[in-house]
Amino acid sequence: ISFSGFLCCIFSVFTV
């Protein structure tokens, strides 16, 4: 699990 991928996921959800 990479931190970048996690942040990407969170950002994607926030910018729905």
Task: Give the topology.
Elements: H1 3-14
Word description of this protein:
The mean pLDDT is 87. The chain has 1 helix and no strands. The longest helix is centred in the middle third of the chain and has 12 residues, at 3-14. It has one helix at residues 3-14. It is rod-shaped and about 20 Å long. It comes from Malurus leucopterus edouardi. This is Short wavelength sensitive type 1 opsin.
Mean pLDDT: 87
Distance between the termini: 23 Å
| Beta-strand residue fraction | under 5%
What's the shape?
rod-shaped
Percent helix among the residues? over 70%
Give a nutshell description of this structure.
With 16 residues, the protein is mainly alpha-helical.
Keywords summarizing the entry:
16 residues, mainly alpha, 1 helix, 75% helix, Short wavelength sensitive type 1 opsin
